[in-house]
Amino acid sequence: MPHVGEDIMIPIIDWQDFSSGKSPEDITACIGGAARTSGAFVLTNHGIPRGVLRDVLELTQVFFDLGEDSKGPAVIDSGFLTRGWCAGSKTAGGDSGESFTIGRALGGSDTAPASPGAGDTGWPEIDGFHEAVLDMYKEMSALSRVVMRAFEPDLALPNSFFASHFTRPMSILSLLRYPVGQRGGEQGAKVHRQNGALSLIVSEGDTGVEVQTLSGDWVPAPHVPSGILVKAGDCLARWSNDAYVSSPMRVPQQNMRHHAVVFALAPNTDSIVAPLPRTGSPKYAPITAADYLLQTAGEFAAGASAAE
Amino acid sequence: MSDWTGVICATNPLITMEWDREYDAVGLICPMPVLKARKCLLGMAPGAILRLTASDPAALIDVRHFCAEAGHEYLGANDLEGGVTAYFIRRG
């Protein structure tokens, strides 16, 4: 049984109960409840092999331990357009760690500028890195779609409603190294929200993530070995007409090396993100996902080209 | 794999695997591919191998959960052209 209780703001959910068809209604109720309060939950038995998680986390550390010349050209963080290695990046949240990001090439769209991609020049020469990171992208992409499917009944949507919004998604996978510091000092990741549809976060140990609930309290995400923390993002909150919460999150700084892998599920560039039917009077005008997600990214990108 | 600039598909031992029956679930949205696989497997002998092709990326998660629940053995997956993946399942 899923953990359902008023006192558990970030529930731990056994995904086998959904995917096996054993009790999908319970799981939908549980993640729907979490999405309305903390906007976060933790998945166990999610179906992603432990080896996949272990490999990518080990290789994340190997990558960030490389010399700067071996990490590929440093790029500017530009949100969903980021590809490759960002050193001391200033993300939307103002983080100052390092990251390595991959995503699909976004060519062929008027609204999404062509991105360099983590292609021939962007991949570091580490045995197995390329395959492990791509495998992780595929696994996280698959899992995030299954989770979106589970939200459909909670939002009174027909089955497969979300599938069409993620056929050529702008999703990205980022490997992160948080800055080391005194616990309680500067934030490893400052307060920020996720602007995609869903974010899936894994770490070698405790993710260290804290989520601000509707009541204003900061709640640490429970740590479950091989668990995956799922956070509702701004796109999903917008679709739900703010029935769901894209809650602020932060990662307090730790005094030891700390890595995470974050997958951000984002819709197709031309996907319309608008409050869904039966969610009440719309609080937002319809907008394409590209316009919505690339607004801030565009500002970063403009800054980058001006600096060249 | 055209979505990935400069990516070379890794060789996968499943490319040469033989199978007893196949089901084409390309174009079907999850959980349909798994429901179709369930039906196929019911008509197969224990130990026989089903090759299920699907285009919904979510099948990667669903097929594993289905196998664990139904007592079949998930042998692995193999990426084909055009965003299609072949899943190999041994009937339990």
Automatic annotation (TrEMBL), chain A:
Residues 177-256 form the Isopenicillin N synthase-like Fe(2+) 2OG dioxygenase domain. InterPro entries: DIOX_N, IPNS-like_FE2OG_OXY, IPNS-like_sf, Iron_ascorbate_oxido_reductase. Transmembrane segments: none annotated. Its cofactor is Fe(2+). SUPFAM superfamilies: Clavaminate synthase-like. Gene3D superfamilies: B-lactam Antibiotic, Isopenicillin N Synthase, Chain (2.60.120.330). Residues 10-124 form the Non-haem dioxygenase N-terminal domain. PANTHER family: 2-OXOGLUTARATE (2OG) AND FE(II)-DEPENDENT OXYGENASE SUPERFAMILY PROTEIN-RELATED. This is 2-oxoglutarate and iron-dependent oxygenase domain-containing protein. It comes from Celeribacter arenosi.
Automatic annotation (TrEMBL), chain B:
InterPro entries: TusA-like, TusA-like_sf. Coiled coil: none annotated. CDD domains: SirA_YedF_YeeD. SUPFAM superfamilies: SirA-like. Residues 22-91 form the UPF0033 domain. Belongs to the sulfur carrier protein TusA family. This is Sulfurtransferase TusA family protein. It comes from Celeribacter arenosi.
